[in-house]
Amino acid sequence: MGDPTPRAVDYILSFGEKLSASLMACALEAAGVEARWMTGRDAGIVTDASFGCAKPIEEVSSGLVRESLGPLLDAGVVPVVTGFVAGTQDGVVTTLGRGGSDYTATLLAKYLGASEVRLYTDTPGVMTADPRLVPDARVVSAMSLEEASEMARLSAKGFHPRTFEPLRGTGIRIRVTSPNGNPGTLIAEHTRGPPVKSLVVVGGFALAPTGSGGEVGVVRPLPGFEPLVIARGRAEGDLTALVLVGEGVGEPEVFGAVVRTVAPFGPRLVYKGHGPSLVLLVDHGPVRELAEKVHREVVLAWWSGSGSPF
Q1: What is the CATH number that goes with domain 198-304?
Q2: Residue 111: helix, strand or coil by DSSP?
Q3: Which CATH class is domain 1-114?
Q4: Model confidence over 53-63: pLDDT tens digits?
Q5: Are strands 173-177 and 116-120 parallel, antiparallel or unpaired?
Q6: Which end of the chain has fewer CB atoms < 10 Å from its terminal CB, N or C?
C-alpha cells in the first residue's frame, strides 16, 4: 500500500473531530437543546490545499460562514463545528495543524462578529510557567493579544501559531479557562499587569560553527528572533530555550534582572524576539533549577511587589 499521502492523512485525522462533534450534538439534544453538528468546511471555512497545515481563504470563508451559521443561530439552533477540520473549495478535507481547534474558534468568532471566545483547557488558564516544571506557577489573570500571540508562536499550551491572528483589531476578547468555572485568563487587545507574564521552555536546540572566527549559530533557530549575545567556542548540542514573554521584557530593569539571574548558569545565547519575548539558550542539564530560579526572581518578582512595577 505504501505511505499515505498528506491528503489521505488529513482525511483519516478528520474522523476523530467528526465523532466528537456528533457526540456533543447528541448530548445537547438529549439535554433539550436543539443542535446540529457539521465539519468546519460545512460551516464555511475554506482553505488552500496545504494538507496538514492548511490556510483559510479569508475572502471566501467569511461570507460562507455567515451564510451557513447565521440562519441556525437566528433559529436558536446550536451549531457544533469540528475544530481543526476544514476543506478546499472543491470539498477536499484539510486540517489546520496541531492546535487547530482553537484556531477554528477564533476564525468563527471573527466571521460571526462574536464579543468573546472561550477556550476550555485542562489548566485554570494561561500559567506563568508549566506547573509540571515549576510547581509555584500561577494563573495569569490578563495578557495582551501580542503576548498571547507570542506564546502561540512558541506552541505554549498547545495553541496553534495563528490562533490569535484573526482577532487583531476586532475588539473580541478571549477567555482561557477550565470547565470548573474559575475566572481564567482574559486576553484582550491591550491589558495592564506585570512586565513579564510567562516563562516558556522549549527543548531541542544545538549550536554549530558558522565561521572561521569561532562564532557559533543555532541549528534550530526560532523564527522571528535575532541574537543579542552570540556564544563563541565549541559546537554544542542538547540545549534548551527559556523564553520570557511579556510587554516589559525590553525594559532595562527586567533585562538586568534576567542577566543577574542566569549569569551563574552560563547561557549560550540571548535572543530578543520581534515580539514581546526574550530567549535564553542554556545547557539542558540544569533547566529545571534555572527555570524555577528565573520564574521566582524575574517573573514573580513584579507579581509579589519585590521588583519594580516601573
Answers
A1: 3.30.70.260
A2: helix
A3: alpha beta
A4: 999 999 999 99
A5: parallel
A6: N
